[in-house]
């Protein structure tokens, strides 16, 4: 396993096991428009041998107006079943930079009842830089039945998020960058207010890894504590659209903090409404 997290594996561990029965490798890369990277095109050009492509948009709830909304367990099961993924597999998930979109897929599999699921430390960019095997060959897939056991308690909806903000019954950890959190930088999606939920603390997902690898547990702990997160209390994570909030979940679980949940609508939902309280800067409530 990589570093001191029970939820990651390193490149050498994975390379030694490629092709073993019961091992599934998933490319779950996804990028923001300003990153100017095409995840599917990159996968088709080069991927880890045997990897299947996990399309975050295709697995999302088709009936939601919000991006990347968690789908029903039935939709999720049908989608991953077409990829030949079984709930009994040992699953290793990667993305390009290491800890961006892969933890979102990791989180989804876990709340659907799969616990032998890991994120590749270092990501595909480091895998390639180290000269490890890649291929452009199409992965042969044998569709199967995926049995989902959905744990809905791990997901926070809008109504509950309103209560959390009002009562402070759980802490809120926001994974967006400092500029978006304070409101100094605009949101990338049109019509979304800038700022953060009252009482939220900023733990940028990008600070939790170095060179594509998850930080050691002592450094992760310090980052959360320095942000004002009490690791003895419940935490709800949020971000822009629910993707990088899962990076915080993985880091919290690495620290043994299991009382955490993810606000799936995240800032796209909260900041897109007109009746939700928003703070900017040092805590001023926005009147927008």
TrEMBL record:
Its EC number is 2.8.1.2. It comes from the Bacteria. InterPro entries: Rhodanese-like_dom (IPR001763), Rhodanese-like_dom_sf (IPR036873), Thiosulphate_STrfase_CS (IPR001307), TST/MPST-like (IPR045078). Residues 176-196 are annotated as: Disordered. GO terms for cellular component: cytoplasm. Pfam families: Rhodanese. Keywords: Cytoplasm, Pyruvate, Repeat, Transferase. Its main location: cytoplasm. Transmembrane segments: none annotated. It catalyses: 2-oxo-3-sulfanylpropanoate + [thioredoxin]-dithiol = [thioredoxin]-disulfide + hydrogen sulfide + pyruvate + H(+). PANTHER family: SULFURTRANSFERASE, THIOSULFATE SULFERTANSFERASE. This is 3-mercaptopyruvate sulfurtransferase. It comes from Aquamicrobium lusatiense. The lineage of its organism: Bacteria, Pseudomonadati, Pseudomonadota, Alphaproteobacteria, Hyphomicrobiales.
């Amino acid at each position: 396993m990589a570093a001191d997290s029970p939820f990651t594996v390193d490149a050498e561990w994975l390379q030694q096991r490629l092709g073993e029965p019961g091992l599934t490798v998933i490319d779950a890369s996804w990028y923001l428009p300003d990153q100017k990277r095409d995840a599917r095109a990159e996968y088709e050009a080069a991927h880890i041998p045997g990897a299947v492509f996990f399309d975050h948009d295709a697995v999302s709830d088709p009936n939601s107006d919000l991006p990347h909304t968690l789908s029903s367990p039935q939709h999720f099961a049908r989608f991953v079943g077409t990829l030949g993924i079984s709930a009994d597999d040992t699953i290793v998930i990667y993305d390009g930079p290491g800890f961006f979109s892969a933890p979102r897929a990791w989180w989804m599999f876990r709340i659907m009842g799969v616990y032998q699921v890991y994120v590749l430390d270092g990501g595909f960019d480091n895998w390639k830089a180290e000269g490890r095997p890649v291929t452009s060959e199409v992965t042969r897939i044998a569709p199967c039945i995926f049995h989902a056991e959905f744990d809905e308690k791990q997901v926070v909806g809008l109504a509950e998020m309103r209560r959390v903000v009002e009562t402070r019954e759980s802490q809120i950890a926001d994974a967006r960058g400092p500029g978006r959190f304070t409101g100094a930088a605009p949101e990338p999606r049109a019509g979304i207010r800038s700022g953060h939920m009252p009482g939220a603390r900023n733990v940028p997902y990008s600070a939790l890894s170095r060179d594509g690898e998850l930080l050691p547990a002592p450094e992760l702990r310090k980052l959360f504590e320095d942000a004002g997160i009490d690791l003895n209390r419940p935490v709800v994570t949020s971000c822009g659209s629910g993707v990088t909030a899962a990076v915080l979940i993985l880091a919290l679980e690495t620290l043994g903090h299991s009382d955490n949940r993810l606000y799936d609508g995240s800032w796209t939902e909260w900041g897109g409404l007109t009746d939700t309280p928003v703070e900017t800067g040092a805590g001023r409530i926005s009147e927008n």
